[in-house]
Every structure is written in structure tokens, then in C-alpha cells.
Specification:
Kinase-like_dom_sf; Transferase(Phosphotransferase), domain 1; 14% strand; alpha+beta; two-stranded antiparallel ribbon; binds adenosine-5'-triphosphate
Length: 380
């Protein structure tokens, strides 16, 4: 446990004793709905006396524990001091039906709204988002926290050009190193290491449903406990970046029987030096492996053709993806490592021109399939 995670626990215990009951309409004027998630709704409001604009996040009391509410509030208030993290404003209260806290309001929607399906968004804007998210995640990681829910709906926009974005929704945040039950869910955002929990979905729902400790022994045995690691956020950042650049996902689900993920893995193994070093004393298992070794010997490693879903990217972008989307978590890059890939071109010229044309033609709300699979399954 880091000093920050200890302090967060302490703050939750202290604020639990002082949470006041307020009448929302007496103190705030509600202007409009900013968004809704699986845990509640977020409204744009102004403080009646001071005129301060803010986002009020409402959590229904019947489905939210006081401690999880206070954890999200205190984390946002005291540790989200980076400009690209959504900070709470020091107002938390309850009504008979809800727990509520106030946060800085981002007035330009979220990333989900601007990613056009099959087209994505401009590369410049994408690189600006990546750069800010690398800083935000690195800040959280340094304090000993892992976000665990990086996705388009949780990146809020403070302007239409993505010059200032803020990562929000800290309901899934955990201290790095905490032991939690592994969850596999059908989504590209799910990490490959989570596959050990595949097939255990039944036991996972019982953990959430049976908070009284009556979870049956058989199911308890099936739970795979793993350590929360910052590399989970690296993976999600890689998938999010792919979604921003293409308006699609590189594979349907991160699973050993998903064809497009397998093609990626094959490409990864071909160009990955470490994999090659590990294999150096063994006979090549396939024609591809032999080819890769030959290419490496002649210094032509970079010419290995990319997996089909990555063929529209430059070698620089391919290296970025291979760092964040490393199937081995222990070798996966950190968000701060990703900063070194920014600045150069990511999308090949021909593809960039095609996307620009498509973008001009398309308009409207993005429809990237979000991680609805997590609804009701995430630990709060
Ligand atoms: N501070 C904010 N400023 C502007 N919009 C916000 C803010 N907070 C949340 N929103 C909007 O509300 C939506 C839901 O908020 P949030 O993700 O925090 O809720 P949640 O119930 O925790 O969601 P999830 O289902 O992802 O767990 C966001 O996708 C975003 O569009």
C-alpha cells in the first residue's frame, strides 16, 4: 500500500462521519443531463448563490455502498490533481434517494460522441488525446492507483479539438497490487491475461449478488485472484487509440479462439525480439518463425508485414501498438513509454486520404461498441 492509498482509506472513514443531507434544488439549479452510466446519472448544474457551473454525479443509494461512493469522491477530490483528470469540487451530500458529489464539468461531451464508426477521428486530435491520457494515467500510477476502465465514454472533452480532455469515472479504480478476482469479458478492452477466468462468469455474478458471504464453497474455489497492475490501463489505452484512429476495434474479443486476435499474436511473435531471444536455442516451430529469424539476422526485422488490421499504420504506430498491446503483461509498455511514439505520422498516406474523405462525408454520433459487458459486473 502506498501512502496515497492509505490516505484515501483514512479520508473515506472520516468523510463517512460528516456526510450531510441536502435538498438538491435548494442549492443547485439543474440545467441538463450530461450523461448516464450504469451506476447513475450526471447533470450539469449551477450553484444558486455563487453561479459556479459543475457536474453533479448522482448514485442511487439502493445500489451504491456509502464506502464506494466516498472512495470515488475522495479519490477525485484529493488525488486527481493532473489537468487531464476530472477533479471533484469539495461538495458531497446525500438525499433520501441518492449520494451526490460535484465535479468539474466538461462541456463538449465525451470521446464516444466524436469517434465516427469505421472512420475514427483526425490523427492530430488522436495524438493529442493519447498524450494527455499518458500524463493522466502516469499520474495515477505514480500514486499507486490503476484506473481499470479506460474507454471512450470515460474521456470527457473540454473543447471540440481535443486540446484539453479529462479522464473521468473513478468507480473501478483500485490500488496497484490489490488482489481481486480476475474477470474475463467479451471485448477487445479485456486483457489477454484475463482469459484464465473465462468460463467463470457464473462465479463472478455470485460474488456481486451474494454480499452476505453465502457464496457457495464450490464457486469460491473457482475464483482466480490476481494482482491489479498498471499494465491493464496500458492495454486499454492501446485499444482506445486504435478505436480513435479507425473507428473500429482490432478484434472482437481478446481470446485465444478469436481469429483476428490470433493473427495479431502471430505478427507480434514474429517481430518481437524478446520472443526471438527466448526461442533462440530451440528449433523454429514454423516457417514464419524461421523467416523472422532470417530477417532479424539481416537487420530487416521492420519489413515483417503487419497483421492485416494494422497494415494501414506506419512502422512508428505499429511499434506504439506493439508496446501497449504486448500480450505478456510483464513486458507491456507503460503509458509514459508511449509518449516517445508521438509526433511522427501514424496512418499511412493512402489510408489517411481515404479516411479524410470518409470523415467529410460522415457526421453524427459515434457508435463504437462500448464495454457494456462490464455493467453490473465491475467491483465498486
Ligand atoms: N464531469 C463530467 N463532465 C461532463 N460530462 C460528464 C462528467 N462526468 C460524467 N459525464 C458524462 O456522463 C457519462 C456517465 O458518467 P460516468 O462514466 O462517470 O458514469 P458511470 O455510471 O460511473 O459510468 P459507467 O457505466 O462507465 O461505470 C459519461 O460518459 C459522460 O458523458
Amino acid at each position: 500500500m502506498t501512502a496515497a492509498t492509505k490516505l484515501l482509506d483514512e479520508m473515506c472513514h472520516l468523510t463517512a462521519q460528516s456526510l450531510t443531507a441536502l435538498d438538491t434544488s435548494e442549492h443547485f439549479k439543474l440545467l441538463k443531463l450530461l450523461g448516464e452510466g450504469s451506476y447513475g446519472k450526471v447533470m450539469l448544474a449551477v450553484h444558486r448563490k455563487r453561479g459556479t457551473p459543475m457536474a453533479l454525479k448522482f448514485f442511487p443509494r439502493e445500489s451504491t455502498s456509502l464506502f464506494s461512493f466516498l472512495r470515488e469522491y475522495n479519490l477525485s477530490l484529493s488525488f486527481c490533481t493532473h489537468p487531464s483528470l476530472t477533479r471533484a469540487l469539495g461538495i458531497a451530500y446525500c438525499t433520501p434517494s441518492h449520494y451526490i458529489f460535484a465535479q468539474q464539468a466538461s462541456l463538449f461531451g465525451d470521446l464516444y460522441d466524436i469517434i465516427i464508426p469505421e472512420v475514427g477521428m483526425e490523427e492530430d486530435r488522436c495524438q493529442r488525446v493519447v498524450s494527455q491520457l499518458c500524463g493522466a494515467l502516469s499520474h495515477l500510477h505514480t500514486l499507486g492507483f490503476v484506473h481499470r476502465d479506460v474507454k471512450p465514454e470515460n474521456v470527457f472533452l473540454c473543447d471540440s479539438d481535443c486540446r484539453w480532455v479529462k479522464l473521468g469515472d473513478f468507480g473501478m479504480v483500485k490500488a496497484s497490487g490489490t488482489r481481486v478476482p480476475e474477470v474475463w469479458y467479451s471485448s477487445p478492452y479485456c486483457t489477454p491475461e484475463a482469459e484464465i477466468a473465462r468460463g467463470n462468469e457464473d462465479s463472478w455474478s455470485s460474488i456481486n449478488d451474494q454480499q452476505d458471504g453465502s457464496e457457495d464453497e464450490e464457486k469460491k474455489k473457482k475464483r482466480v485472484l490476481v494482482s491489479v497492475e498498471p499494465t491493464t490501463d496500458s492495454w486499454a489505452l492501446g485499444i482506445l487509440t486504435y478505436a480513435m484512429l479507425t473507428g473500429s476495434h482490432p478484434w472482437a474479443e481478446t481470446a485465444s479462439d478469436c481469429g483476428s486476435y490470433l493473427k495479431y499474436q502471430e505478427w507480434f511473435d514474429q517481430v518481437n525480439i524478446l520472443g526471438d531471444e527466448l526461442d533462440v536455442w530451440t528449433e523454429p516451430q514454423s516457417e514464419n518463425q524461421q523467416k523472422t529469424r532470417d530477417l532479424n539476422k539481416t537487420g530487416q526485422k521492420d519489413q515483417t508485414p503487419a497483421a492485416p488490421q494494422f497494415s494501414c499504420f506506419t512502422p512508428l504506430a505499429c511499434s506504439f501498438f506493439q508496446s501497449l498491446l504486448n500480450p505478456r503483461p510483464q513486458n507491456r509498455g507503460r503509458p509514459e513509454d508511449a509518449l516517445s511514439f508521438l509526433g511522427g505520422d501514424w496512418v499511412l498516406e493512402k489510408e489517411r486520404m481515404r479516411l479524410e474523405k470518409e470523415r467529410k462525408r460522415s457526421s453524427g454520433k459515434g457508435a463504437i461498441k462500448c464495454m457494456k459487458e462490464m455493467e453490473g459486473r465491475g467491483e465498486r
